[in-house]
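Supplementary Text 2. Reproducibility record for the structural model of the 506-residue chain.

All settings were left at their defaults, and a single model was retained for analysis rather than an ensemble. We include the record here because the model underlies the residue-level annotations in Supplementary Table 4.
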Amino acid sequence: MGGLTRAERNIAWIEKHCVVPEGKDVGKPVKLRPFQVELLEGIYNTPTRRAIFSVGRKNAKTATAAMLNLLHLCGPEARVNSSLYSSALSRDQAAIIYNLSAKMVRLSPTLRDFVTTRDTVKELYCAELGTQYKALSADASTNLGQSPIFIIHDELGQVKGPMHFLYEALETATGAQEAPLSLVISTQAATDADLLSVLIDDALEGHDPETKLFLHTADPEADPFDEETVRQANPAFGDFQNAKETMAMAEAARRMPSREAHYRNLILNQRVEASNPFVTKTVWDLNGSALVGRGRKGLYGGLDLSEVNDLTALVLYDPDTGDVEPTFWLPEDGLAERSRQDRVPYDIWHDQGFLTTTPGKSVDYKHVAQLIADLFEARDIRKIAFDRWRMRHLRPWLIEAGLSDGFIDDHFVDFGQGFQSMGPALNTLEGLLLNSKLKHAGHPVLTMCAANAIAKMNEAGDRKLDKAKSRGRIDGMVSLAMACAIASEDSHEKPVYPVELEAILE
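Retained model, structure tokens:
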């Protein structure tokens, strides 16, 4: 390959020896796209110590990193007896680059005889050159061994704050190497203070000429739902990134602002911290039809037993008709004062029959239990999901109201309030709302809860409801989410969700 630049040599090697590891073109030779060629030219045609490749999801960040991994393991960039690492915050994330690299090796007619894959320890080994690659994660014990020559930092945008021990450990371990290379691949972090943002901003200011930045992000002033804006952050749009699914995500975010921050970060690759309402007033009002009446499938409930002096909520949901029937309790004493404090008309809602009070200064669970027992007697209630933390205080009163231990065990379902349980529940509720499948008849207390609810997101993209303000009440929405989720689960239906967002994310 005389006369080729270093980047051209590497591009030629990748396209000759690497194959598409999965998807519709699996097993076919890789054909690098212009943005990938630009990345390789920027890294290899000028001195580079660190490269930052930040782009929206499903633009082959990980696959590109896997190709460079093989390039340094057994290609023209390999150095005899060298060590390579990739790092991630979790074992599952760490396994992704290894898995793609291993798939490329196994499918490649020219690489599979030279590289050994070790799935149990997430290692690749080239015996002829003595080179070794290993995937590391922050939640596992780390033994760096030799000084690495090539490092991949995967999804560094998930790191909160300006430092991370595994990043620092790997970067400082390269001291014995003459020309080490680090590759950062990630969508952007949420805030300016996070590690990836610090690295990107430093690169933008040009302090280190050997740090190369390849940042594909949408203009924050542009229409976030316009196709041209989406293209700014997604160079593979309409190619191996599914344009239809991506624009469906844009439309879902337009209609449901709880998705907008998630969409802006993962698809538009913008620095965004989620603080959006879970449901817009427009979408909520579209679900405000009058109740239909009894359906065929029975009712399902969600019970949020809040603090004894706070709002307690029971929401019944009919999956056949979409009817939503909430009941709310507050203490009778101090109701007017609480109305002034929370700046909502609890006292008026009580007079109008939308809010039930119990005697005294705290919610009397005896009254709650009796009403629930009466509802079981009068209505076809299949199951009620509840928050486990306060159920032990309600259970004795349910028994006193006439429900047996066996009946309680059969009809009450423990429902976790963390991201793992509430994430799928919110997906189900969100899908019903987007498709106008609910009928809440404009219940004012439940509407207040909907207005106060925001979607809080963890690093994995799972969500749970949180308050938009300290005095905001969201108990009714938590109960509604549990009711819809338990109804879907009990009927063995898939969650109602119009766009499979998570399925098309890396």
